[in-house]
Amino acid sequence: MQVTLTAKVKLTPTPEQASLLLTTIRSIKQALNHTSRFSFEHQVATPFALHKQLYRPLRTTFGLRSQMAQSVIKTVAAKYRSMKSNGVTGTLAVFRKPEYDLVYNRDYSIKKDQFSLNTLEGRVKVPFNPNGMERFFDGTWDFGTAKLVVKKGKFFLHIPMTKEMEEPTDDRRIRNIVGIDLGINFLATTYDSDRKTAFYNGRQVKTRRARYAQARKSLQQRQTPSARRRLKATGNRENRWMSDVNHQLSKALVTRAGKDSLLVLEDLSGVRGKTEKVRLQDRYVSVSWAFRQLRQMIEYKAALHQCKVIAVDPAYTSQTCPKCLKPDKANRIKKIHTFRCKKCGYTTNDDRVGAMNLRYKGTEYLSK
Ligand SMILES: [Zn+2]
């Protein structure tokens, strides 16, 4: 599995370097907007045509170096291409944020504790804060096109890092099996090989999502342009927040499981039974993209920790007795959040049962 993540490195430039970086980033922003306007007004969109008309002026007027001018042209052409494919035409593309794209080994490289960055005045060697970054510099990661970003006077390099991660191909290496049950009151309940249960409280998430739903509803009823704009903004904010929740949750789950674990999730893509469908509706995962995203994040982080993820058929995981394995709908007493086996009398918290049964399915998977 190929893993890509973005390393955010804080640069610690000298005052002279900072001022040079700022000039560079500003010139590039101006050049981007100039190029965008030219493309818009003259209906010139291909990199080739833009290059012909703008390469010289970009170099002389904005003082860009050759690679930067080419990069600006490419960025603008790509921006209009993607707008067009999203059905947006007749709109001027505006570049608001001060950002600068740097191609690895062409515009930037790394040596020991310094980044060598291409600026308007050639290469400068800028020190950075290596805290927590060490693992990326062991030669096993591929560096992608980085973005130089300035925020409140501080400089950051956002670098996409790619690595081919190997799943534990040998299942005998697995020393911990964790059942992960996703829900509402608890975002996740896990049960592991030490017979330990962990609950990840979801009450705050539930409340906040209800608030978002309420806001969406009232905005939807008003059909004004400003309501539509606010609806979109609210949706974006909710998505960003949800991504953040998923990020933290997946990180917590994988960190707790530890290296060489088997993580067992429910496969909800093939849910067919009617009872299970009803159950699905009242889940944290009822927003399907949020669930898909969480799954992806868990798989990602699992790969980074040499863990394996499997998704199993969720049928009866909430109503089967984890002790005697007898399934019975009546085992689950929702009202008092209790599971009581009709056959053997085993009693426990009903949220724990799903995780226990998922873990059991993991042991079955390993013994095959
Ligand atoms: Zn039982």
TrEMBL record:
**Domain Cas12f1-like TNB: start-end pairs:** 291-358
What keywords were assigned to this record?
Answer: DNA recombination, DNA-binding, Transposition
Annotated Probable transposase IS891/IS1136/IS1341 domain residues: 164-259
- Pfam families noted in UniProt: Cas12f1-like_TNB (PF07282), OrfB_IS605 (PF01385)
Task: Work out whether the entry's keyword set contains Coiled coil.
Answer: no
What protein family does this chain belong to?
Answer: In the N-terminal section; belongs to the transposase 2 family. In the C-terminal section; belongs to the transposase 35 family.
What protein does this entry describe? Transposase
Protein source organism: Cohnella silvisoli
Q: What is the lineage of its organism?
A: Bacteria, Bacillati, Bacillota, Bacilli, Bacillales
